């Protein structure tokens, strides 16, 4: 069972692009909210992220993961697939 994944990004952000690329490699589908020039979406992101203002901000299954660094740490520890709801086969 896959979980809902939501990203808040800016179009010129290299970390945003890297986060989206990692999720694409995992085969994960996500909703991307491009916040450049969209103050209402930016305010939504800040509220959901507990006041954090940097991008990307990533939410998986309603849980705030954080940014790109947090996403890659989860992947390096082998925890990202489980959080994404992906089934890993041996």
TrEMBL record:
What keywords tag this UniProt record?
A: Cytoplasm, Disulfide bond, Electron transport, Redox-active center, Transport
NCBIfam families documented for this protein:
GRX_bact (TIGR02181)
Q: What is this protein called?
A: Glutaredoxin
Spell out the PANTHER family in the cross-references: GLUTAREDOXIN 2, GLUTAREDOXIN-1-RELATED
Give start and end of each Glutaredoxin domain: 5-65
GO MF assignments? glutathione disulfide oxidoreductase activity
Q: Which residues form a coiled coil?
A: none
* One cellular component (GO) term of this entry: cytoplasm
What protein family is recorded? Belongs to the glutaredoxin family.
Question: Cross-referenced PROSITE patterns, in alphabetical order?
Answer: GLUTAREDOXIN_1 (PS00195), GLUTAREDOXIN_2 (PS51354)
Q: Which InterPro entries match?
A: GLR_AS, Glutaredoxin, Glutaredoxin_subgr, GRX_bact, Thioredoxin-like_sf
Instruction: Report the function annotation for this chain.
Output: Has a glutathione-disulfide oxidoreductase activity in the presence of NADPH and glutathione reductase. Reduces low molecular weight disulfides and proteins.
Instruction: Please list the GO biological process terms of this entry.
Output: cell redox homeostasis; cellular response to oxidative stress
User: Pfam families of this UniProt entry?
Assistant: Glutaredoxin
Q: Which organism is it from?
A: Dinoroseobacter shibae (strain DSM 16493 / NCIMB 14021 / DFL 12)
């Amino acid at each position: 069972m896959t979980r809902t994944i939501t990203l808040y990004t800016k179009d010129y952000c290299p970390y945003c692009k890297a986060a989206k690329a990692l999720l694409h490699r995992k085969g994960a589908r996500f909703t991307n909210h491009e916040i450049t020039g969209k103050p209402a979406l930016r305010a939504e992101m800040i509220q959901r992220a507990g006041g954090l203002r940097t991008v990307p901000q990533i939410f998986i299954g309603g849980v705030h993961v954080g940014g790109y660094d947090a996403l890659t740490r989860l992947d390096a520890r082998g925890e990202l697939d489980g959080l994404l709801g992906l089934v890993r086969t041996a």
